[in-house]
């Protein structure tokens, strides 16, 4: 299939508009939108997932005081519709100002939609390794009017296909278009994306050199990921990876019973302790609970702290 490349017109632009008011009138006059420079979008249809995606790519902005590399490490960002802009700006700043990071090529796996309902269902499909009937029941409890957009049987459990899509379709695409280093590549995910990132680490640990995990949804399907971790421990002698797992302190135990059901802080501690306890010689792992941070506010903190950890600064 031919891929279509076009300039990235907008990422993460939020405009507050009061209908009929002066802000709405000003918005109507706007001819341009905010864009990230030195980026592109590649449209692709995945044979593994059987769906359309957009691959958002951002070149690093090189520090003129440092020698330019022959090839770049790559940061693969899941949920690019949410986190691509943050990842691009922080990797560029952290390299360009003080050299905290090497120059990093940022690759976001995005969806060709800006509808939150559509994005929610597609990410549920791609990030989860199994089906969880409780998840849809919980959604209906929170929003009785909710009606699924995807047909039954296609709304969950496609994590393995999504990982193959990244491994066998996205990575070769990027390697064919950019100067990509042989090592130093990182996968980042938050929430259900964090569940997927841990799933990738445990089921295909050689897929990436580094894994940065924010507030992973380990609660999924009765905390089935702990069973996957046990299977991995019995099947391999070593896991060669740098892993950073972070979570917000306010994600559990702050007087919100519905939030406590997810046991996010508890499960992050438990997973990190299990992985450390396996004694893998080549596994470097760190976990951090960020005081005063929530499920959403913790994301940039996990990303930047994780990048510093995995790249050694």
Helix content: 25-40%
Q: How do the strands line up in the largest sheet?
A: 1-2-3-5-4-6-7-8-9
- Got a strand count? 9
Low-confidence stretches: 1-19
What's the overall geometry? globular
Radius of gyration: 20 Å
Distance between the termini: 41 Å
Counting DSSP H or I runs of 4 or more residues, the number of helices is 11
Largest sheet: 9 strands, mixed
Characterization of this structure:
The protein has a 9-stranded mixed β-sheet, sandwiched between helices. The protein is built from 11 helices and 9 strands. Helices cover 40% and strands 18% of the residues. The longest helix has 19 residues, at 159-177.
Itemize the secondary structure elements and their pairings.
Layout: E1 4-6, H1 22-29, E2 39-46, E3 51-58, E4 73-77, H2 80-96, E5 104-110, H3 116-127, H4 133-142, H5 159-177, E6 186-190, H6 192-203, E7 210-214, H7 220-223, H8 225-235, E8 241-248, H9 257-260, H10 264-277, E9 283-290, H11 298-310
Parallel strand pairs: 4-5, 4-6, 6-7, 7-8, 8-9
Antiparallel strand pairs: 1-2, 2-3, 3-5
Helix pairs in contact: 2-11, 3-6, 6-8
């Amino acid at each position: 299939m031919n891929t279509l490349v076009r300039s990235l017109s907008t990422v993460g632009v939020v405009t507050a508009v009061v209908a009929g008011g002066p802000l709405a009138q000003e918005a109507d006059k706007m001819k341009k939108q905010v864009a990230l420079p030195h980026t592109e979008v590649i449209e692709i249809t995945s044979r593994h997932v059987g769906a359309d995606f957009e691959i958002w790519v951002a070149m690093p902005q090189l520090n003129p005081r440092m020698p330019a590399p022959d090839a770049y490490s790559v940061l693969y960002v899941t949920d690019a519709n949410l986190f691509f802009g943050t990842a691009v700006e922080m990797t560029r700043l952290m390299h360009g100002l003080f050299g905290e990071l090497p120059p990093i090529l940022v690759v976001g796996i995005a969806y060709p939609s800006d509808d939150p309902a559509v994005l929610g269902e597609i990410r549920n499909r791609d990030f989860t390794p199994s089906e969880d009937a409780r998840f849809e029941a919980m959604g209906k409890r929170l929003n009785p009017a909710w009606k699924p957009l995807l047909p039954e049987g296609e709304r969950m459990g496609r994590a393995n296909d999504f990982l193959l899509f990244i491994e066998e379709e996205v990575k070769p695409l990027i390697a064919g278009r950019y100067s990509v280093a042989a090592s130093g590549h990182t996968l980042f995910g938050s929430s259900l994306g964090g569940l997927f990132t841990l799933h990738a680490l445990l089921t295909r640990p050689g897929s990436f050199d580094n894994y940065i995990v924010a507030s992973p949804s380990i609660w999924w399907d009765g905390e089935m990921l702990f069973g996957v971790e046990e299977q991995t421990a019995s099947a391999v002698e070593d896991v060669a990876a740098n892993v950073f797992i972070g979570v917000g302190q306010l994600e559990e135990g702050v007087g919100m019973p519905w939030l406590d059901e997810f046991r996010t802080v508890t499960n992050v501690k438990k997973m990190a302790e299990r992985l450390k306890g396996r004694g893998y010689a080549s596994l470097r792992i760190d976990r951090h609970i960020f005081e005063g941070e929530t499920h959403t506010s913790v994301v940039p903190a996990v990303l930047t702290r994780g990048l510093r950890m995995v790249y050694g600064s």
